[in-house]
Amino acid sequence: MAIATMTTPLPISFFPFLLLIPAICFTICDANSNLLCIPSEREALLKFKNHLIDPSNRLSSWVEGGDCCKWIGVVGHNLTGHVHQLHLAAPLSPYEQSALGGKINPSLLELNHLSTLDLSNNNFSSIHIPKFFGLLESLTYLNLSRAQFQGAIPHNLGNLSKLQYLDLRGNDLKSESLHWVSGLSSLQYLDLSYANLSKATDWLQLIFST
Protein backbone atom coordinates (compact mmCIF):
# COMPACT_ATOMS: atom_id res chain seq x y z
CA MET A 1 0.00 0.00 0.00
CA ALA A 2 1.24 3.48 -0.83
CA ILE A 3 0.31 4.63 2.62
CA ALA A 4 2.96 2.43 4.16
CA THR A 5 5.81 3.50 1.92
CA MET A 6 5.26 7.24 1.67
CA THR A 7 8.36 9.39 1.41
CA THR A 8 6.78 12.77 2.08
CA PRO A 9 4.69 13.75 5.11
CA LEU A 10 1.02 13.11 4.44
CA PRO A 11 -1.38 13.37 7.38
CA ILE A 12 -3.88 10.54 7.59
CA SER A 13 -7.14 12.12 8.64
CA PHE A 14 -10.40 10.24 9.00
CA PHE A 15 -12.31 13.29 10.15
CA PRO A 16 -13.89 16.25 8.32
CA PHE A 17 -11.95 18.98 9.98
CA LEU A 18 -8.74 19.65 11.87
CA LEU A 19 -8.49 20.81 15.41
CA LEU A 20 -7.40 24.40 15.66
CA ILE A 21 -5.15 24.60 18.68
CA PRO A 22 -5.24 27.97 20.43
CA ALA A 23 -2.13 29.62 21.74
CA ILE A 24 -1.34 28.19 25.14
CA CYS A 25 -1.48 30.57 28.03
CA PHE A 26 1.37 29.99 30.43
CA THR A 27 0.08 32.41 33.07
CA ILE A 28 -2.12 29.81 34.74
CA CYS A 29 0.16 29.61 37.77
CA ASP A 30 -0.16 33.18 38.98
CA ALA A 31 3.04 34.56 40.41
CA ASN A 32 1.03 36.17 43.19
CA SER A 33 -0.68 32.96 44.20
CA ASN A 34 0.49 31.20 47.34
CA LEU A 35 -0.95 27.89 46.18
CA LEU A 36 1.71 25.27 45.54
CA CYS A 37 1.34 22.26 43.31
CA ILE A 38 0.12 18.98 44.75
CA PRO A 39 3.08 17.27 46.55
CA SER A 40 2.26 13.83 45.14
CA GLU A 41 2.23 15.26 41.62
CA ARG A 42 5.55 17.01 42.20
CA GLU A 43 7.05 13.68 43.26
CA ALA A 44 5.55 11.99 40.21
CA LEU A 45 7.23 14.54 37.95
CA LEU A 46 10.56 14.09 39.71
CA LYS A 47 10.35 10.32 39.17
CA PHE A 48 9.58 11.00 35.52
CA LYS A 49 12.59 13.34 35.25
CA ASN A 50 14.94 10.86 36.94
CA HIS A 51 14.45 8.33 34.13
CA LEU A 52 15.09 10.85 31.36
CA ILE A 53 18.35 11.73 29.65
CA ASP A 54 18.58 15.53 29.56
CA PRO A 55 21.89 16.53 27.92
CA SER A 56 21.16 20.26 27.90
CA ASN A 57 19.70 20.31 31.43
CA ARG A 58 16.39 21.67 30.14
CA LEU A 59 14.65 20.45 33.27
CA SER A 60 17.02 22.19 35.70
CA SER A 61 14.09 23.94 37.38
CA TRP A 62 12.60 20.56 38.36
CA VAL A 63 14.01 20.29 41.88
CA GLU A 64 12.92 18.66 45.13
CA GLY A 65 10.73 20.94 47.22
CA GLY A 66 10.02 23.41 44.43
CA ASP A 67 6.63 24.52 43.16
CA CYS A 68 6.13 22.31 40.10
CA CYS A 69 3.58 24.77 38.70
CA LYS A 70 6.53 27.07 38.02
CA TRP A 71 8.79 24.46 36.44
CA ILE A 72 9.76 24.73 32.77
CA GLY A 73 7.19 23.00 30.58
CA VAL A 74 4.65 22.47 33.37
CA VAL A 75 1.28 24.18 33.44
CA GLY A 76 -0.82 23.83 36.55
CA HIS A 77 -4.16 25.19 37.70
CA ASN A 78 -3.99 28.27 39.93
CA LEU A 79 -7.05 27.20 41.93
CA THR A 80 -6.39 23.50 42.46
CA GLY A 81 -2.62 23.16 42.02
CA HIS A 82 -3.09 20.11 39.80
CA VAL A 83 -0.77 19.66 36.83
CA HIS A 84 -2.79 20.03 33.62
CA GLN A 85 -0.22 20.24 30.84
CA LEU A 86 3.32 19.08 30.05
CA HIS A 87 4.99 20.89 27.13
CA LEU A 88 8.33 19.14 26.67
CA ALA A 89 8.84 19.38 22.92
CA ALA A 90 12.50 19.81 22.01
CA PRO A 91 13.45 22.86 19.94
CA LEU A 92 14.51 21.85 16.47
CA SER A 93 17.85 23.61 16.81
CA PRO A 94 20.20 22.63 18.30
CA TYR A 95 18.43 19.26 18.27
CA GLU A 96 21.12 16.93 19.56
CA GLN A 97 21.84 19.08 22.61
CA SER A 98 18.23 19.76 23.54
CA ALA A 99 16.39 16.49 22.87
CA LEU A 100 15.25 14.45 25.84
CA GLY A 101 15.81 10.71 25.80
CA GLY A 102 15.87 7.71 28.12
CA LYS A 103 12.76 6.01 29.45
CA ILE A 104 9.27 7.28 30.26
CA ASN A 105 8.32 6.49 33.85
CA PRO A 106 4.69 5.43 34.50
CA SER A 107 4.63 7.92 37.38
CA LEU A 108 2.80 10.13 34.84
CA LEU A 109 -0.28 8.09 35.74
CA GLU A 110 -0.33 9.95 39.06
CA LEU A 111 -1.15 13.16 37.15
CA ASN A 112 -4.88 12.49 37.13
CA HIS A 113 -5.75 15.87 35.62
CA LEU A 114 -3.20 15.82 32.79
CA SER A 115 -4.92 16.98 29.60
CA THR A 116 -1.92 17.84 27.37
CA LEU A 117 1.25 15.84 26.80
CA ASP A 118 3.74 17.04 24.20
CA LEU A 119 6.98 15.05 23.83
CA SER A 120 7.56 15.90 20.18
CA ASN A 121 10.99 16.31 18.55
CA ASN A 122 12.77 14.38 21.31
CA ASN A 123 14.96 11.28 20.96
CA PHE A 124 13.37 8.23 22.61
CA SER A 125 15.35 6.01 20.27
CA SER A 126 14.62 2.27 20.37
CA ILE A 127 11.73 2.39 22.86
CA HIS A 128 8.06 1.78 22.15
CA ILE A 129 5.26 4.19 22.90
CA PRO A 130 4.39 3.25 26.51
CA LYS A 131 1.18 1.25 26.78
CA PHE A 132 0.27 3.13 29.94
CA PHE A 133 -0.41 6.23 27.80
CA GLY A 134 -3.75 4.55 27.11
CA LEU A 135 -4.59 4.98 30.81
CA LEU A 136 -4.15 8.77 30.86
CA GLU A 137 -7.90 9.24 30.76
CA SER A 138 -7.93 13.06 30.92
CA LEU A 139 -5.78 13.58 27.82
CA THR A 140 -7.24 15.77 25.10
CA TYR A 141 -3.93 16.45 23.31
CA LEU A 142 -1.10 13.97 22.68
CA ASN A 143 1.84 14.89 20.46
CA LEU A 144 4.60 12.30 20.04
CA SER A 145 5.68 13.40 16.56
CA ARG A 146 9.31 13.01 15.49
CA ALA A 147 10.29 11.64 18.91
CA GLN A 148 12.05 8.52 17.53
CA PHE A 149 9.58 5.98 18.93
CA GLN A 150 9.63 2.52 17.39
CA GLY A 151 7.43 -0.56 17.20
CA ALA A 152 3.71 -1.20 17.31
CA ILE A 153 1.25 1.55 18.13
CA PRO A 154 -0.43 0.54 21.41
CA HIS A 155 -4.04 -0.31 20.65
CA ASN A 156 -5.11 0.83 24.10
CA LEU A 157 -4.64 4.42 22.93
CA GLY A 158 -8.18 3.81 21.73
CA ASN A 159 -9.30 4.07 25.37
CA LEU A 160 -8.65 7.83 25.35
CA SER A 161 -12.23 8.89 24.72
CA LYS A 162 -11.49 12.56 25.49
CA LEU A 163 -8.57 12.79 23.09
CA GLN A 164 -9.07 15.43 20.40
CA TYR A 165 -5.57 15.64 18.89
CA LEU A 166 -3.18 12.75 18.23
CA ASP A 167 0.06 13.26 16.30
CA LEU A 168 2.36 10.25 15.85
CA ARG A 169 4.03 11.30 12.60
CA GLY A 170 7.71 10.90 11.86
CA ASN A 171 8.32 7.82 14.04
CA ASP A 172 9.19 4.24 13.06
CA LEU A 173 5.79 2.82 13.95
CA LYS A 174 3.51 0.11 12.64
CA SER A 175 -0.01 -1.14 13.19
CA GLU A 176 -1.76 -4.24 11.89
CA SER A 177 -5.20 -2.81 12.63
CA LEU A 178 -6.75 0.62 12.96
CA HIS A 179 -9.77 -0.58 14.88
CA TRP A 180 -8.42 1.18 17.99
CA VAL A 181 -9.03 4.55 16.32
CA SER A 182 -12.79 3.95 16.51
CA GLY A 183 -12.57 4.26 20.30
CA LEU A 184 -11.33 7.85 20.04
CA SER A 185 -14.82 9.29 20.06
CA SER A 186 -13.68 12.92 20.52
CA LEU A 187 -10.85 12.85 17.98
CA GLN A 188 -10.65 15.75 15.52
CA TYR A 189 -7.08 15.42 14.23
CA LEU A 190 -4.98 12.32 13.57
CA ASP A 191 -1.57 12.11 11.89
CA LEU A 192 0.09 8.73 11.30
CA SER A 193 2.53 9.84 8.59
CA TYR A 194 5.36 7.36 7.99
CA ALA A 195 3.68 4.62 10.03
CA ASN A 196 3.73 1.21 8.36
CA LEU A 197 0.06 0.34 7.88
CA SER A 198 0.58 -2.27 5.16
CA LYS A 199 -1.18 -4.94 7.25
CA ALA A 200 -3.99 -2.69 8.46
CA THR A 201 -6.66 -3.87 6.05
CA ASP A 202 -9.50 -2.31 8.05
CA TRP A 203 -8.68 1.36 7.38
CA LEU A 204 -11.32 1.72 4.64
CA GLN A 205 -14.02 0.42 6.98
CA LEU A 206 -12.88 2.95 9.53
CA ILE A 207 -13.15 5.83 7.08
CA PHE A 208 -16.69 4.92 6.01
CA SER A 209 -17.85 4.40 9.59
CA THR A 210 -16.91 7.96 10.67
From TrEMBL:
Annotated membrane topology: Single-pass type I membrane protein
Domain Leucine-rich repeat-containing N-terminal plant-type: start-end pairs: 39-74
Signal peptide extent: 1-31
GO CC, alphabetical: membrane
Compartment(s) of residence: Membrane
Keyword Ribosomal protein among UniProt keywords: no
Top-level taxon in the UniProt lineage: Eukaryota
Keywords, in A-Z order: Glycoprotein, Leucine-rich repeat, Membrane, Receptor, Repeat, Signal, Transmembrane, Transmembrane helix
InterPro entries: Leu-rich_rpt (IPR001611), LRR_dom_sf (IPR032675), LRR_N_plant-typ (IPR013210), RLP23-like (IPR046956)
Stated name of the protein: Leucine-rich repeat-containing N-terminal plant-type domain-containing protein
Native organism: Gossypium arboreum (Tree cotton)
